[in-house]
Design goal:
The protein is an alpha/beta fold and about 375 residues long. The chain contains ten helices and 17 strands.
Length: about 375
């Protein structure tokens, strides 16, 4: 599958865990349309673990849980497709999924045909219970080949948590996106940790195979399956902005049927989504301000000669200022060039400077995103 931009969609796990059913998926698809999420670019509705019955049928096929999904998966796929969206599902490369449901080990081709018959467009493929005497690349290559054999375009989301040096082989085995992290939870310190762990991964992402820093927790407010204290709106805004700067897949984890207006506006922020979905999908360059790791500054090359910058305050106090030093990102003191930038949140234009861009008073756990062009200064 030729995936040119980071995938965008919704996944059931973060909020609902095992508490999923047919009604939830249909209402979620409806909400993705009515709230503007579909029009903002979110296209996949993915059912994570716990969708299947505990036993395969007499032919060895997977079976949808008859209580949760009485009409089966094809019924849901048809409904999701009727809304202009795409359908996703979950399996695992071991004999069991993480929650103890049937996995796809030694059933790869059979399960791939099941997914194709049910018109699945996206497969999240997890890492629990994988056999220790088989290499990870072998297990994931098996399923990619099985998906190819169906003749259906199915996005392959590899989820092995970055183990077994996965960054070295995920592209080779046909992964369209890959998890390079352990699980996210609804806590700002976890978001900061996942961001910092990407130091050596950022450049290992691009068209056909995107680095997945795990699903979004924006708008969960401490509720749901991965609740862990929760975040405030400023912290969710930083989470979303940093994922967009990294061109990460944007998979919503909150209950989109009951979003706050702040969450809806954040998840449909066209300025930030445009950075995530920029045609060149380049990873960012990272530099640091005076406070070092607590104030990372990122620069991202965009299409049409534009640039985006993020200035983040990870500290617990409002910053006096955070600075972007132009020599750090390619402009010498005597070059006579500067950046013509604006604040993507307010639209405010910043003064053009040839040496240092200073942003004052960034609140604790908050991020400023700047965008603009390189200009010759007279």
């Amino acid at each position: 599958m030729n995936v040119k931009r980071p995938p965008m969609g919704f996944n059931t796990w973060n909020t609902f865990g095992e508490n999923i059913n047919e009604k939830l998926i249909m209402e979620t698809a409806d909400a993705m349309v009515s709230t503007g999420l579909r029009d903002a670019g979110y296209e996949y509705v993915v059912i994570d673990d716990c969708w299947a019955a505990k036993q395969r049928d007499e032919n060895g096929d997977l079976v949808a849980d008859p209580v949760k999904f009485p009409h089966g998966i094809k019924y849901l796929s048809d409904y999701v497709h009727s809304k202009g969206l795409k359908m996703g599902i979950y399996s695992c490369c071991g004999p069991l999924t993480c929650a103890g449901y049937p996995g796809s080990l030694d059933h790869e081709y059979q399960d791939a045909m099941f997914f194709a018959r049910n018109e699945i467009d996206f497969l999240k493929y997890d890492w629990c219970y994988h056999p220790r005497n088989m290499d990870g690349w072998t297990l994931y290559n098996r399923m990619r080949m099985a998906l190819n054999a169906t003749g259906r375009d199915i996005l392959f989301s590899i989820c092995n948590w970055g183990e077994e040096n996965a960054l070295e082989w995920v592209r080779s085995v046909g992964g369209d996106m890959y998890r390079s992290t352990q699980d996210i939870s609804d806590n700002f310190s976890i978001i900061e940790t996942l961001f910092n762990e990407q130091k050596n991964n950022r450049c290992l992402s691009g068209p056909s195979c995107f680095n997945d820093v795990d699903m979004l927790v924006c708008g969960m407010y401490g509720k749901g399956n991965v609740s862990n204290g929760g975040c405030n709106d400023a912290e969710y805004a930083t989470h979303f902005a940093l994922w967009c700067m990294m061109s990460a897949p944007l998979m919503i984890g909150c209950d989109v049927r009951n979003m706050t207006e702040a969450t809806r506006k954040l998840l449909t922020n066209r300025e930030l989504i445009a950075i995530d979905q920029d045609p060149e999908v380049r990873p960012p360059i990272v530099t640091y301000s005076i406070l070092e790791e607590k104030s990372p500054v990122m620069m991202k090359h965009l299409a049409n000669g534009e640039y985006a910058f993020s200035l983040t305050n990870f500290s617990d106090d409002k910053s006096d200022y955070i600075q972007l030093w132009l020599p750090d990102v390619g402009i010498g003191a005597l070059d006579g060039y500067g950046f013509e930038l604006y604040d993507t949140d307010t639209g405010e234009k910043l003064p053009i400077t040839t040496d240092i861009v200073t942003v004052k008073g960034i609140e604790a756990h908050s991020t400023k995103i700047l965008r603009g062009k390189l200009v010759k200064v007279k």
